[in-house]
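Schema walk-through. Below, the input block comes first and the output block second. Nothing else is stored per chain. Lengths vary across the set, and this one has 107 residues.
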Amino acid sequence: MPAAKRGIKSDFEQAVASVRGYLKQETLMPLRGLARFITFGLAGALFFAVGSLFLVLAVIRVLQSETEVFAGAWSFVPYLAGLAASTVMLYLVFAALRKDGKRHGHG
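--- output ---
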């Protein structure tokens, strides 16, 4: 009888080890890949946001310093141009997101 108990115990331990290995392979590994994907996505979004901000500030700065037309009563126009540039960038971002969603069958 002790040999049968030892066999059942080893079978049970082997089954538990097999389930642990399966769970590790099917849950932890994909979560690590997802974390890496999210990390790079957030870093890319941050870099894109900072670059867009610098681009809008450059548009405003160029229009204020390099042109004589936008002085006095027209000094608000460079800010409108910066607003227009940021609106165009937002439109392009949302258009790309919409196109990517259709490509993957989500919408």
